[in-house]
Specification:
Elements: E1 2-4, E2 7-14, H1 18-21, H2 28-31, E3 38-41, E4 48-52, E5 58-67, E6 71-76, E7 90-99, E8 102-110, H3 114-135
C-alpha cells in the first residue's frame, strides 16, 4: 500500500480471472464473503452503494462507473454525524487486470482528508487480503472486524 498526495493505492494479486473477481464488488452475496454484514449494491451508474461493515459502521455512496470485468468506480463515505468522510465524499476506483492465470486488483481511494488516510489504508489492506483469499477459493474465516450478534467486536 502507498499513500501519496492524499491518495491510497494498493495492489494485490488474486488467483482467479477478472470475470470471477468482478462480482465480489457488485454482488451482495459475494461481497458478504469478504467485507461487511449487509449490502445494498445497485451495480449501475447512479445506483446505490451501501455496505454495513459491522452492525455499526455503514459506508455509502453511489456507483459511478461499471465496466465488467475490468473496472468499478464508486463514491464512498460513512453515515452518521461527525464522520470525517461523509457519504459519497470520496471515490474508490478498482481496476482488474489479467495476469496469467490470475488478476491484479488495483484499488485507488481519492478524496480523503489527512486524518482519514491511515485508517482507510489499514481498512483496505485488511479487506483486500480477505478478497484475495475468497476469490482465490479459500475461506478467510470470520472477519475479526465484524460485530458479534451482541454488538461487540469479534
Amino acid at each position: 500500500m502507498t499513500i501519496v498526495d492524499g491518495v491510497i493505492e494498493q495492489e494485490i494479486r488474486v488467483q482467479a480471472a477478472p470475470a470471477e473477481v468482478f462480482p465480489y464488488f457488485t454482488d451482495p452475496a459475494k461481497m458478504r464473503r469478504w467485507q461487511g454484514v449487509d449490502h445494498t449494491l445497485e451495480a449501475r451508474p447512479g445506483g446505490v452503494y451501501r455496505v454495513d461493515m459491522n452492525g455499526t459502521m455503514v459506508a455509502s455512496g453511489t456507483f459511478i462507473e461499471i465496466d465488467p470485468p475490468r473496472r468499478v468506480v464508486f463514491s464512498f463515505g460513512w453515515e452518521g454525524e461527525g464522520q470525517p468522510v461523509p457519504p459519497g465524499s470520496s471515490t474508490v476506483e478498482v481496476t482488474l487486470t489479467p495476469d496469467g492465470d490470475g488478476t491484479v486488483v488495483r484499488l485507488v481511494h481519492r478524496g480523503l482528508g489527512d486524518e482519514a488516510l491511515s485508517s482507510h489504508g489499514e481498512g483496505w489492506e485488511h479487506y483486500l487480503g480477505r478478497l484475495s483469499a475468497v476469490a482465490g477459493g479459500s475461506d478467510p474465516g470470520p472477519d475479526p472486524w465484524a460485530a458479534r450478534p451482541d454488538g461487540s467486536a469479534a
